[in-house]
UniProtKB/TrEMBL annotation:
Its cofactor is a divalent metal cation. Residues 1-152 form the Calcineurin-like phosphoesterase domain. This is Phosphoesterase. Its EC number is 3.1.4.-. Belongs to the metallophosphoesterase superfamily. YfcE family. The keyword Transmembrane helix does not apply.
């Protein structure tokens, strides 16, 4: 099962559209995750129409219309793994222990907010993944997203993809 993870698209404030390489990945994914800060409903409509399955939440920059359509936390059981998606997890210091306590029984936590790619495993086995942002790199060298595969109940081939800089 192939997964595509993104967050913090901030459209149309940070970019006019999602980058073409990211859009090209959507039909290849069995499940698309978005960890919030959409800003516009058009991006949600686009991902709903192009994704086989979308697991998504709202973020702190998302207004009432997005909040009425999306949960603050989403859960999905996929390929023998329990996923949770949330926008904010708090400061980096202590994140693993805090998230392991906040999300018992979860195998993989997808989150956003910082625009900083993150891939760690908490004591006890919770995998924390932040795909960064495909449209707003902030202080990062590149805009990014993640792909991964579930094989025999395990995450495999976790890959951070760098997007070309906009002109």
């Amino acid at each position: 099962m192939r997964l595509l993870l993104m967050s913090d698209t901030h459209l149309p404030r940070r970019a006019r559209a999602l980058p073409a390489p990211l859009l090209d990945e959507i039909p290849r994914a069995d499940v698309v995750f978005h960890a919030g800060d959409w800003v516009d409903t058009a991006t949600l409509d686009l991902l709903e129409s192009r994704s086989r399955r979308l697991v998504a939440v709202y973020g702190n920059n998302d207004g009432p219309e997005l909040r009425s359509r999306l949960p603050e936390v989403a859960y999905a059981d996929l390929g023998g793994l329990r996923f949770a998606v949330v926008h904010e997890t708090g400061p980096a210091r202590g994140r693993e222990a805090r998230c392991a306590a906040d999300f018992p029984g979860v195998d993989v936590l997808v989150f956003g907010h910082s625009h900083i790619p993150w891939d760690t495993t908490a004591p006890g086995g919770l995998r924390l993944l932040n795909p960064g942002s495909p449209t707003d790199r902030r202080h990062q060298p590149h805009c990014t997203y993640l792909t991964t595969t579930i094989t025999n109940g395990r995450l495999t081939d976790v890959a951070l993809h760098r997007l070309p800089r906009r002109g």
